[in-house]
Amino acid sequence: MSFKVSQDEKPFDSTLKFPAPEQKCFNLIILSFHNIKEDKELGRGGMDRQQVVLHMNPGMGDNSYAHNSIIQNKVMRETKAIVEESIMRLYTIVPIHCFKVADLGCSSGPNALQLVSNVIDIVDTTTSNLNLEPPVFQFLLNDLFGNDFNSIFKSLPQFLESLEEKKGHKLGPCFINATPGTFYKRLFPNGSLHFVHSSFSLHWLSQAPKDLGNKENIHLTRTSSPAMHKAYGEQFQKDFKLFLKLRSQELVPGGGMVLTLIGRDKTREIRTSWSLLGTTLNDMVSENLIEEIKVESFDLPLYDPTIEEAKEVIEDEGSFTLQRLESVALDWGANINEDVVDNNNKLDLNMKAEAITKFVRAPLEPVLKAQFGEEVMDELFRRYKNKIVQLIMEVDILEFPTLVMSLIKNV
Ligand SMILES: C[S@@+](CC[C@H](N)C(=O)[O-])C[C@H]1O[C@@H](n2cnc3c(N)ncnc32)[C@H](O)[C@@H]1O
Fold first, then answer.
1. Do 90 and 406 contact (CB within 8 A), yes or no?
2. To bridge 137 with a disulfide, which of 92, 174, 218, 274 should be the other Cys (CB 3.0-4.6 Å)?
3. CA-based nearest residue to 305, from 284, 327, 282
4. pLDDT at residue 345, rounded to an integer
5. d(Cα 76, Cα 366) in Å, to the nearest integer?
6. Distance 360 CA to ligand 1 centre (A)
7. Partners of residue 321 on adjacent β-strands
8. Under a CB-based contact definition with an 8 Å cutoff, are residues 260 and 403 in contact?
9. Is pLDDT above 90 for 39?
């Protein structure tokens, strides 16, 4: 097995090709770059700061996303049945020779290739059942420019080897491409995708709403003004609507899309984890460990919509038919290996708080580091963990709702 990796930047000739090796299953990585010059000419502006700063903790260290994304991995394994339903439906409506799949916000670590495994399994079963030849696969892994794509590339030899061992001759040629750029802009040519997937990424907004006057908090809390709730809600509507419009241009008619994102129940307040982070930062301001102005000028670009808010945007945008929309409760403490339990078969309180802290640190540290400096990160999360210990003692169940939706592009 051989494959090639390229990271050359060629903004205008966007695909870098290599001669295909002889092997039956080979891998070719193409880095396609968004045409920034064209963007400027079209008045869409250049790269903003968030596109460069935002990424999950890279590498394989203790605080990396790769080691702290068990919850997200569980969700991907659990939503496999919904992906299967969408792909089986596709097979009944369009002839597929090269199956083109995009995973938006793939990040790095084991989850970045989880969708590839799931789709190959599903298509294998589907084509066997329908007595069809296995297709050629093209997987397009997207994330922002700062994402640790190198870790994905480095994990490919082992991944492909185990895939070949598992599937052998039944596996058709498989191309894995990286497409860096924001999913709030066009990423692929018109009508070029059969299936789009995005897991745990769409609660990241394109930006926090501007001029919130939100001095003491870094996000919405129970005490935030109605104007601030409105501003965040409107930013979500604007971003999600744009996302749907762009993907509808890139999908074939009848193409499928499965999206998973953190949501919120109407009855529950906006995530406690953000309030606790804000309180921790403010404690550090009062001890002169962090400058006040830095907290005053910072707002997290995240929003957890209700099921109703998501549905309203999909219906209003109009390019997709909603096949499924569900809310599933997830345990914050699930970010820990299930075999780490104490004598009473319960997760130790301290370990649970540690796992929750890492679950929050892995995605948020790069944006927090850019605002508050690397030197305060360990202290910030040490204090944050203590607050989580207190919270676990006060509240029995720590859950957050996750929205799972399956959509079909209208013909
Ligand atoms: C929590 S990770 C989820 C990764 C993976 N899909 C999973 O389920 O484990 C969210 C990912 O979304 C990416 N992301 C956020 N906003 C994005 C945007 N506008 N365009 C592309 N990727 C984005 C982040 O960089 C991050 O890698």
1. no
2. 174
3. 327
4. 44
5. 24
6. 14
7. 408
8. yes
9. no
Q: Which residue has the tokens 């903790």?
A: 57
Tell me how far the alpha carbon of residue 186 lies from the centroid of ligand 1, in angstroms: 16
Q: Is the dihedral of CA 128, 132, 137, 142 positive or negative?
A: negative
Determine if the pTM surpasses 0.85: no
User: Which residue range(s) make up the domain with 253?
Assistant: 3-266+300-332+399-409
Pocket mutation for ligand 1, best pick of 70, 143, 240, 262 (most atoms within 8 Å of C-beta): 143
Question: Is residue 94 situated within a structural domain?
Answer: yes
Least confident of 60-74, 125-139, 291-305, 386-400: 60-74
pLDDT at residue 234 in the model: 94
Q: What is the mean pLDDT of residues 117-121?
A: 92
Q: What is the DSSP letter of 230?
A: H
Residue with tokens 């209208």: 410
Number of domains in the chain: 1
Query: Is the CB of residue 366 less than 8 Å from the CB of residue 146?
Result: yes
Strands 174-180 and 27-28: unpaired
- Give the atom of ligand 1 at the shortest distance from the alpha carbon of 54: 25
CATH of the domain at 87: 3.40.50.150
Query: What are residue 262's phi and psi, to 5 degrees?
Result: -70, 135
Cα within 13 Å of Cα(203), Cβ side: 22
- Amino acid found at 331: D
Closest C-alpha residue for ligand 1 atom 27: 107
86, part of any domain: yes
Tokens of 367: 């944006």
**Over the stretch 204-226, which tens digit does the pLDDT of each residue have?**
999 888 877 767 778 877 777 88
Domain annotation covers residue 107: yes
* 381 in any annotated domain: no
Using alpha carbons, select from 388, 387, 383 the residue that is nearest to residue 372: 383
Please tell me the distance from the alpha carbon of residue 314 to that of residue 311, in angstroms, as a whole number: 5
Report the relative pairing of strands 251-262 and 193-199 from DSSP bridges.
parallel
Residues linked to residue 199 through DSSP beta bridges, in sequence order: 260
CA 272, distance to chain mean position in Å, is 21
82 pLDDT more than 50: yes
Residue 17 pLDDT greater than 60, yes or no: no
- Please say whether the beta carbons of 148 and 2 come within 8 A: no
